């Protein structure tokens, strides 16, 4: 039985890495006015943030169509017996449900939709691990067991500069966004029960990031090897500076750099910084 691995574009796994591991990708889209762009295909993160600055209206985001997903599954059925499809959290997108529905329409292939319950490169870690194990000839059962193991230790926190994006996109309640902007609060956000919720409310971004580093230290100080990603919304230099600090303090942590692309960037806004990690 050969297992194919698919994820959606919000994992933000670079194309070169996807090709090397044999990971297939289905794009989500952003729409500015009458123009729709498939992220990771038609628009880069840099182009997106430039467009957001120029446009008065925030773009709309949309999940992949059932037809697009079904088409890919039927194509994969020619060379594979099974598919593990890692999606962004079902609490913030209908992509997971789209994969479930497409599975009923695809022929000759067994599809497992795996809800990462998160997004961005933290989601990507599941797809990367699944593809690595699939290349080693592991069964889907073994792969899924390992993904569940990662889920037990994976933690992710992010700090946004402006709560209005989350409020307008319906990803955070209006009351929370209003109170936050009034008090200039920079909340630490995380995923709970598949949805984005405040973890703690802190007055400044600097203090919020310091608190995230304290949370990291709780796991890092145990000495176990960790895999960590620093995720940024058009703040590459800041991300590299954080990466250097972490590597200096914790030699047992492998640090990656990633970004909030168009779809997630629409909801978080420019300037957001996130950290995600799990036990290797």
**Tally of separate domains:** 2
Number of helices: 11
Rounded mean pLDDT score: 92
Shape: globular
Largest sheet: 6 strands, mixed
Could you list the spans in which at least 5 consecutive residues all have pLDDT below 50? Answer: none
Structural class: alpha/beta
Radius of gyration: 19 Å
Supply the key terms.
Rossmann fold; 280 residues; alpha/beta; 2 domains; 13 strands; 43% helix
Describe what you observe in this structure:
This protein is an alpha/beta fold. The protein has 2 domains: 3-28 and 63-152, Rossmann fold (3-Layer(aba) Sandwich), CATH 3.40.50; 155-279, Hypothetical Protein Tm841, Chain: A,domain 3. The chain contains 11 helices and 13 strands. It has helices at residues 15-21, 45-54, 66-76, 95-105, 120-135, 140-153, 164-168, 174-182, 205-220, 236-249, 262-268; strands at residues 3-8, 23-26, 29-32, 35-38, 60-62, 82-87, 110-115, 155-159, 188-192, 195-200, 226-232, 253-259, 273-279. The strands form 3 sheets. Strands 10-9-8-13-11-12 form a 6-stranded mixed β-sheet, sandwiched between helices. A 4-stranded parallel β-sheet has the order 2-1-6-7, with helices on both faces. A hairpin with a 2-residue loop joins strand 9 (188-192) and strand 10 (195-200). The radius of gyration is 19 Å and the shape is globular. The model has no long low-confidence stretch (mean pLDDT 92).
């Amino acid at each position: 039985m050969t297992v194919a691995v698919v994820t959606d574009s919000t994992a933000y796994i670079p194309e070169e890495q996807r090709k090397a591991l044999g990971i297939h990708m289905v794009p989500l889209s952003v729409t500015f006015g009458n123009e729709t762009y498939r992220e990771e295909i038609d628009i880069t993160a840099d182009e997106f943030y430039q467009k957001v600055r120029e446009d008065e209206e925030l773009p709309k985001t949309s999940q992949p169509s059932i037809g697009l997903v079904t088409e890919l599954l039927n194509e994969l059925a020619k060379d594979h017996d099974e598919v593990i499809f890692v999606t962004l959290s079902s609490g913030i997108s209908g992509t997971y449900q789209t994969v479930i529905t497409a599975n009923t329409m695809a022929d000759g292939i067994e599809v497992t939709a795996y809800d990462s319950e998160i997004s961005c490169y933290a989601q990507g870690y599941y797809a990367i691990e699944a593809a690595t194990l699939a290349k080693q000839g592991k069964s889907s059962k073994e792969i899924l067991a390992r993904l569940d193991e990662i889920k037990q230790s994976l933690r992710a926190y992010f700090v946004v500069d402006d709560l209005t994006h989350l409020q307008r996109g319906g990803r955070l309640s209006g009351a929370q966004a209003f109170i936050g902007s009034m008090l200039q609060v920079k909340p630490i956000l995380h995923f709970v029960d598949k949805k984005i919720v405040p973890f703690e409310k802190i007055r400044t971004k600097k203090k919020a990031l310091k608190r995230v580093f304290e949370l990291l230290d709780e796991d890092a100080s145990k000495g176990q090897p960790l895999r960590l990603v620093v995720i940024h919304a058009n703040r590459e230099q800041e991300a590299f500076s954080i990466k250097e600090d972490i590597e200096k303090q914790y030699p047992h942590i492998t640090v990656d750099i990633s970004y909030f692309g168009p779809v997630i960037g629409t909801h978080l806004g420019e300037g957001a910084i996130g950290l995600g990690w799990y036990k290797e």
